[in-house]
Amino acid sequence: MANRNIMVLDTTLRDGEQVPGAKLNMQQKVEFAQQLKRLKVDIIEAGFPASSQGDFQAVQEIARTVGDSVSITALGRAVKSDIDAVYESIRLAQQPLIHIVLGTSNIHVEKKFNRSKEAVLQMGVDAVRYAKTLLPHVQYSTEDASRADFEYLWSTIEAVVKAGATMINVPDTVGFAEPEEFGELIRKVNERLKNVNPEVILSVHCHNDLGLATANTLSAIKNGADKIECTINGLGERAGNTSLEEVVMALKVREARYRCRTAIETTELLRTSRLLTYLTGLDVQVNKAITGENAFAHSSGIHQDGLLKDKQVYEIMSPEEVGADSMELVLTARSGRHAFKHAVQQLGFDPGEGEALEQLFQRFLELADAKKEVYDHDLFYLVTEHREQAASSQQLFELKSFQVVTNDECPTAALSLRKGDTVLKGSAVGDGPIDALYRGIKALTGLDVSLKHYKINSISRGTEAVGRVNIQLEYGGKIYSGRAMDTDIIKASAQAFLNGMNAALLDTANDQSDLSGNDRLSS
Ligand SMILES: CC(=O)SCCNC(=O)CCNC(=O)[C@H](O)C(C)(C)COP(=O)(O)OP(=O)(O)OC[C@H]1O[C@@H](n2cnc3c(N)ncnc32)[C@H](O)[C@@H]1OP(=O)(O)O
Ligand SMILES: CC(C)C(=O)C(=O)O
Ligand SMILES: [Mg+2]
Question: Which PANTHER family match (predicted)?
């Protein structure tokens, strides 16, 4: 049996934008919509045009500039003026779709609208009839469906389908459903819907209040849903929406079980997630499935050993499949001899055997206990010092001291670095303290690097919180990462930048030795 196609509607620009702090301007929305097109989503929900002139214009601009090969929709209430705003904003797209929402649960009908069920149902029918005079494609969302009385929900669906709705969206608006129950709801709706009009597309829209959005969406797919609504990074009202990357990868990795596929270009997933983080300033938790920083990082010895023997031992999908760099082995005091040996060999050294290896490994453990994470340049020092090859370590930079003065006028950084036996001192001004620091480091090292990514997270609470800084820089056409942790976030920022530079220097040294056929770094 051929795999079933599941349509993907991305609502990051509508439900995702309902998150406090996630407000984007028009240019940012268009940039994100362009990335969604590269990701190959089927439908982009671009906004709620009746809410403000700014949102109307953003939806219109997305429809005009991005809506040539991807369907564009926007949301409105079951109110004529909202539907007019939706129509006017999306009509320039090639495949415009009007989206109308109206509550179906007793709570919504009684508390929000204070009307009879019949009156609310009629509002929905009238809204769909009106929308159909404007466009052929109309989606109707039965808001709060998972808490609705089933027979009332069904009469609403039947009535709006008869009025011309071409898509029925069943939302778990408040994230109340659990997977078995939601699957059963979709199975029942699907069964009846196919008898009324088999052409109508059945869609689901889940929220994550109990952390079940992905599970509920997958359960709905198993039970006949043709279309899913999701957001990148699971961004959305309250605890968020179904995370697009999680459902798409679950369908891909467990294809044999679901027998469903989406058109999503999975290698664009991480790029899309990073763009959203950059545009909104809302970070992804480090252990978030698929797009979290640690999603493909392995730090314990038994896992690292298994992965080095065969990636499948601890990897169910390859990082490259979602657009991430290849798997990352993070060296910590929980790492074992296999991972340590591998890292030393990657640097171009021979880690030795027997007693020699054991001595080196014990020194590594001491360092790892003190430093939490051990980076390439730490290993480099460890190995070269151990072998009395101090001359080779002349090329790496170490932070000796720094002072940053920050004010409105000209934030300034004064710092000194050590390079082998030489101490380099200098200062710089910048747009802010980190900018001043990085300008100073660049001037002292003389390395023409460009900073591509800077991220800081707090990894503990209180005034003693440890800041973890991750950077990416470009040097010689390649991207290098650096990270560092410290209770002083300015120090962590300087150290991460230097770690990235040292990684670039080590790589360059290795490339040169490869070219000359003379392994300069090995003993
Ligand atoms: C589950 C969801 O995510 S639904 C989408 C949520 N998105 C948004 O709310 C978009 C942003 N919202 C807005 O900009 C504004 O709330 C607007 C423009 C929609 C409405 O603003 P206002 O006219 O000032 O109304 P306000 O928001 O205070 O109240 C909502 C009104 O719409 C009514 N309403 C709510 N949902 C619907 C609906 N689906 N269909 C028709 N009327 C509705 C409410 O009953 C209330 O009407 P009332 O004044 O008669 O009691
Ligand atoms: C508009 C609808 C689909 C919605 O966002 C919800 O019910 O959560
Ligand atoms: Mg929602």
Answer: 2-ISOPROPYLMALATE SYNTHASE 1, CHLOROPLASTIC-RELATED (PTHR10277:SF9), HOMOCITRATE SYNTHASE-RELATED (PTHR10277)
The count of domains in the chain is 3
Q: Note whether 18 and 80 are same-domain residues.
A: yes
DSSP secondary structure code for residue 67 in this structure: T
Question: How many angstroms separate the CA atoms of 5 and 26, rounded?
Answer: 32
Whether 101 lines ligand 2, by a CB cut-off of 6 Å, is yes
- Which atom of ligand 1 is found nearest the CA of 143? 1
ipTM confidence:
0.98
In a domain, 286, yes or no: no
Q: What are the pLDDT digits (tens) for 450-465?
A: 998 888 877 655 555 6
- Picking from 328, 357, 388, the residue at the C-terminal end of a domain is 388
Which residue has the CA at smallest separation from atom 43 of ligand 1? 77
Q: Is residue 49 part of a domain?
A: yes
205 is in an annotated binding site: yes
pTM of the model: 0.81
Q: Which domain holds residue 419?
A: 395-516
Asked if 434 contacts 493 with a C-beta cutoff of 8 angstroms, the reply is: yes
**Is there a single domain that holds both residue 384 and residue 404?**
no
The reply to whether 313 falls in a domain is yes
Give, in order, the Cα–Cα distances in Å from 82 to each of 18, 56, 60, 161.
17, 11, 14, 20
